[in-house]
Amino acid sequence: MNASRNLGTRPGLRGLARWAALLGLALSGTASASEAELKLPDLSRVTFLSGTDGRSLLMWGLLVCLFGFGFGVYQFAQLRKLPVHKAMLDISELIYETCKTYLITQGKFILALEVLIGAVMVLYFGFLQHMAVVKVVTILIFSLIGIAGSYGVAWFGIRVNTFANSRTAFASLRGKPFAIYAIPLRAGMSIGMALISTELLIMLCILLFVPADFAGPCFIGFAIGESLGASALRIAGGIFTKIADIGSDLMKIVFKIKEDDARNPGVIADCTGDNAGDSVGPSADGFETYGVTGVALITFILVAAHDPIVQVQLLVWLFVMRVVMIIASFLSYVINEAIQSARYKDATEMNFEAPLTSLVWLTSLVSVALTFIISYLIIGNLGDGTFWWKLSAIITCGTLAGAIIPEVVKVFTSTESAHVHEVVTSSREGGASLNVISGLIAGNFSAYWMGIVIVSLMGIAYGVSTQGLGALFPVIGSTIDPSPVFAFGLVAFGFLGMGPVTIAVDSYGPVTDNAQSVYELSLIENVPDVSNQIQKEFGFKPDFTKGKEFLEENDGAGNTFKATAKPVLIGTAVVGATTMIFSIIVLLTNGLTQGVGNLSLLYAPFLLGLVTGGAVIYWFSGASMQAVSTGAYRAVEFIKRNIKLEGVEKASVTDSKKVVEICTQYAQRGMVNIFLAVFFSTLAFACVEPFFFIGYLISIAIFGLYQAIFRAEGQGHRAASGDGGGGHGGRSIQGHLQRGDESDHQVHHPLRPAGGGAGNHPPADDQRRPGGGLLPRLAGLRLAVVLPDADRDRSGGAEGSGAGQGGLALPSR
Questions:
Q1: In terms of Cα–Cα distance, which of 617, 366, 372, 402 is closest to 492?
Q2: pTM, rounded to two decimals
Q3: Handedness of CA 578, 581, 587, 592 (dihedral sign)
Q4: How confident is the model at residue 715, as a pLDDT?
Q5: Which residues pair with 637 in a beta bridge?
């Protein structure tokens, strides 16, 4: 690698802190323009790979992004061409129509929130910071692009999944399991590749093509927009799915009807909820997480690394690694599919979890290998010549987490695990009370073990970072070494290294869940002469018994891997938040030289901030659960009045859409309540005292991590054990055990009709889960409205922390 020093830099982005830092660093002090912005160096001033400059090297990344997006679209087109019976197609299209109605309503809602956030941005950047009108407009435009990105990938995910669910259901009639596994995974890879490629393409375009003076506003606006879109879709989607779930499930109990009874108008809303909560939300959330974590690392590099050559080397390395990870996921998927096809294509039985586990581990190992190879080629001469493998080892901690965490989670969620079988037995013998207690046990233990895994991996990264990496981030006038925080950011980066595959296995569950519903709602077994019709039109004789059996088993695998992906995404958000928050701290302390002692339990405002953040997480949980209980009551009330069990085969489309409307209405009410409360409370906290606000951000990240994992895994175990969890896991384990050693005993929840089914899980499941990642982001969004230029002199000495450093102008009081 050769470094040629050309003068000329590009004023660039300002940072963030997992939202707090994103907007915090975006907000400048009163200094001149050159001082008020973090400087993005000229990427072409450093050469790599025998003479290719950084900018030219990243241009090749655009082609890889286009390839990844094209692969996602190609998979989408292939799914659409798969054979499907009209009865099943009609149901999946009805689900899509209700999903479309939900998304359109949510789109209007997000735009309304954007008006509020936009007004705040105009007030701050235009009137308080006196930024040029064209730059303010640029921020607003790119915030809309960010919203469009989150919203667009969510819509794409819904469309892909609603194609895949009916095709999976129909494929089950062939009596062979491989296609039932391959179709949902193909759908997931379509979403994952398109999502990650789109996010990276936008960021590269800003980095490479936007004029230097506008790169900062573009990144700021884009991050604000994607954050806002993801927050609304994730939280409202979680509330929606539980309202629909409870409304549908209670009808099974009240009227003693089977799972997915077509006469129940709440079933379609339940299917819509599965997509809203487990497809729309995670897709938008993944899009935002991938982008904001990257911006956090970029910000840290620009704040902490003072040598422009080092900045360029690290920035180019980060983006090249992101590009390579798209290639790693693609290659791993292709190789794994070839192996699994050879093994299972003509099989009559298969363990649906096995090929998914194989894919996760293969992707992790391929990513690790490419990390070391590419790092050696790109930054082999960085520092003393050993930094390339040290940085690679740190990223590897995050990459391996993407494989290790699912293995730990499966102890609590897999249909094959001894823990789940024990839960089934205790539920059968002890009823609802023991089942709920089992969920609490699983949630607590899983939160503990997830915490231990994450801390262990971060600890390894910390150890490696102390081996000389501090030379990259010298702090003049201070003995503090910021390299461990950079290491934590790289761990989060590694979490996302196998992003397309993580998104794919997360999206696998909603498809397998909906596939069972499509099968039941289509009433395909009641279609006159359907066997001969399928034989004539599609060339095979349907095996309905085998089909239902395979769908049940695959749904168990889907629930398990849906649960395994959640901690990875949650962990990414929280570990990434460490880097973002530290970026704020660097600015507040004037480069870690003043007021560092205020980051101590002995400094009362900081301690009070820690306590406050924990309290807010529990308010968030209560508010979202309250929204669910209120909406579920309204949905149940409507269904009880309108359900018709005599003389009809299925509920009317009008009634089904009305239930969806009710769920959407109350999900949005809950979201408005949460949004406004967090918005204004965080504004107030930011104005109290700078280090109080830092403590608050740290606290909501940590409390949110454990609360989110606790609820996600508590739900996951119940999904696998037969008490729902957002789907039909009950049928999965029930079918599994009935075909195994416990064939004489039906797994039957005492409060559930004999049809089994989607769990009557409490509203806590999905609603608390978003708090782990999204609440810190919501808090960060609020920071945009704070920060008028105020006196920053505190007793701890945060004086001057804004202007000279590009600044965070937190008011004193």
A1: 402
A2: 0.79
A3: negative
A4: 56
A5: none
